[in-house]
What does this fold into?
Amino acid sequence: MVITRVDASHKNKIHIYLDGEYAFFLSPREVQQLKLVEGGEVPDSFYEAVLEDIILPRAKQKALSLLKFMDRTELELRDRLSAAGYSQDIVERAIRYVDGYGYLNDGRLASAYVRTRKSTKSKLVIKMELKQKGVDPKLIELALSEEYDADDQEDPEITAIKKAVAKKVKSPGDMDYGARQKLIASLYRKGFDIGKIKQVLNQEL
It folds into this structure.
């Protein structure tokens, strides 16, 4: 295999190209230690050894680091690892590694996401945001049903609408027709159910 390019334009990362294709990135120190230069040749076994001994362990550590302070969906983790310069194969292996320890759980993330946002956001917006994060639709529906269908609590969307109204107007009962319609339109654009918006405003009047 021929080292066709040694790209040092990335901060603290040197991208190595073998036979014209991007292979992996190394630190400047590692490149120096391995004596990699453009035009040089390395055996296939060298490529595999670098992947197994340097790149894969680094990708696993990167994945763990990304999950250390906050849950991420599998899609988010995959995107972050890919953006960091890891190949698709290495990304998948790193994901399998952290998943094997139970660190990846889209269902758990979806439930927590709904629970912490249901009092300030509409159900529709929460659903859309979870879809954008790559959560499976079935897991989204399960999380929503768990948080919104409880019999011993006020409808979370009603609670969220009340909070939104309180932030926008001090005395809803003093609003004229035009102001009321503007408020309804504003809340509707945020994904709140029109019937529930009117229900809250009628209670406040």
In short: Strands lie at 3-10, 13-18, 21-26. The two ends are 77 Å apart (CA to CA). The chain has ten helices and three strands.
